[in-house]
Amino acid sequence: MLRISRAAVALALAALCATGVVAQGRADDFPTKPIRWIVPFSPGGATDIVARVVGQKMQEAWGQPVVVENKPGAGGTLATELIARAAPDGYTIGGISLNFTMYPFLYPSFPFNIQKDFTPITLVARIPSILVVTPAMPVNSVEDLIRAAKASPGKIGFASGGGVGTGGHVAGELFKKMTGVEMTHIPYKGGGPATADLIGGHVQTSFATTTSIVEAIRANKVRPIAVTSATRFPLFPDLPTVAESGVPGFVTEEMQGIIGPAGMPKPIVDKLNREIVRILNLPEVRDRLVNLGATPVAGTPAEFADYLRTESAKWAEVFKGSGITAE
């Protein structure tokens, strides 16, 4: 029979306590050098703006540089690989958008597990899309669009700015699955070209993010018929949600979040989370996000982890059997 002496137990407990004290001590001193913030897209987009606005405030509070590095390519997977391979010491973090939750389906060769190989830090914001149609199209509601799509299967095209796996694309795929209609995805390289073709009548409809379509709506260049979020959009309070318009349960929004590599010490994750949440609640930062068309969110790492699991499961169901891939 194996016997463990009291002395051995005491030494083990002391070691565990010491480990906790060291981790907490590192968090108390953190950061002692520059923080690297990796952005998976080009400068100027929402993920980049979040990094620069929040990073500047972190730098002011902590007295250490926050260096934003833009690493676009392969739908963001190049940047997230860099995050996964970084030392889990809190000095490398990164921004993600909704397509992170779809890597297993869109990029089957992506070598990391999005649930196990990253540390969620916080959800930053949700960005709804608005279902819009070209003004020449005789459609004024979601019901009208469903009727038109069923009358001409596959002939109505929906544009997405950014291509496969972006918010506009997956919103359209979810709409197709939940309504039983056939529409054709027409990918564009960005929101600008997609909106231009929508205005010009070269494509009939789009699930366009609020950040890219608000000005065209205000100028009456496109016709909004519904918003994709669970609640109405504050800038257009009379615009119904898709769920209100006859597709119950339909909700999809772009998101901005912050992650690190797996294995980060909890005290450092918590310190990063507390500081970022504090910054997100500053009036000038909230106003900047709202002006981007975003709904600020500031939660715990556990809440963000639950959100990522829920979104990934939802999109797995949407893409199952579709044959859609970005590779």
Automatic annotation (TrEMBL):
Keyword annotations for this protein, in alphabetical order, are:
Signal
Leader peptide range in chain numbering: 1-23
Q: Which Pfam families match?
A: TctC (PF03401)
Keyword Chloroplast listed? The answer is no
Q: Which InterPro entries match?
A: BUG, Bug_dom1
PANTHER family in alphabetical order: BLR1237 PROTEIN, TRICARBOXYLATE-BINDING PROTEIN
What is the protein named? Tripartite tricarboxylate transporter substrate binding protein
What species was this sequence derived from? Xanthobacter tagetidis
